[in-house]
Amino acid sequence: MLNSFLGKRIKACGYAFKGALILIKTEPPIQVQIIIAILMTAIGFYLNITTVEWMFQIFSIGLVISLEAANTAIEEIADFIHPDYHKKIGLIKDMAAGAVFFAAITAVIIGLIIYIPYLF
Ligand SMILES: Nc1ncnc2c1ncn2[C@@H]1O[C@H](COP(=O)(O)OP(=O)(O)OP(=O)(O)O)[C@@H](O)[C@H]1O
């Protein structure tokens, strides 16, 4: 029983990893977020930010990429369920994009709080 529980969890991790790879390979918004994440990580090393600042930066990057991934999945569902134009589909897609917007604004504010003191 434990074996099958563990086996299922390991399989689920495999599917999740496969999903992450698909997102990285095929979705330009995710690719852009990953480039920004790499750039911010390089800047973090260059300016030698503190452990707490690293924690906030990594959390912000994870939050934005995760929500971008969820937004992509919602867009896929919307297009699958209703490929034609519909006001409601537009609303659903805009709301999902709004979630990414909230995360992105939060990440920018955190970034400013971390980096402004290093610049002045
Ligand atoms: N089927 C539809 N019906 C109504 N409005 C739509 C529909 N598809 C897209 N839209 C509108 O166009 C906007 C962009 O939709 P789209 O699916 O191209 O998202 P996107 O963010 O540009 O996609 P991607 O991230 O793949 O570039 C939506 O937020 C919505 O306002």
TrEMBL record:
GO terms for molecular function: ATP binding; kinase activity; metal ion binding. The keyword Flavoprotein does not apply. Substrate binds at residue 68. GO terms for cellular component: plasma membrane. It is found in: Cell membrane. It holds the Pfam family DAGK_prokar. It is a multi-pass membrane protein. A divalent metal cation binds at residues 27, 75. Its cofactor is Mg(2+). InterPro entries: DAGK (IPR000829), DAGK_sf (IPR036945), UDPK (IPR033717). Belongs to the bacterial diacylglycerol kinase family. This is Diacylglycerol kinase (ATP).
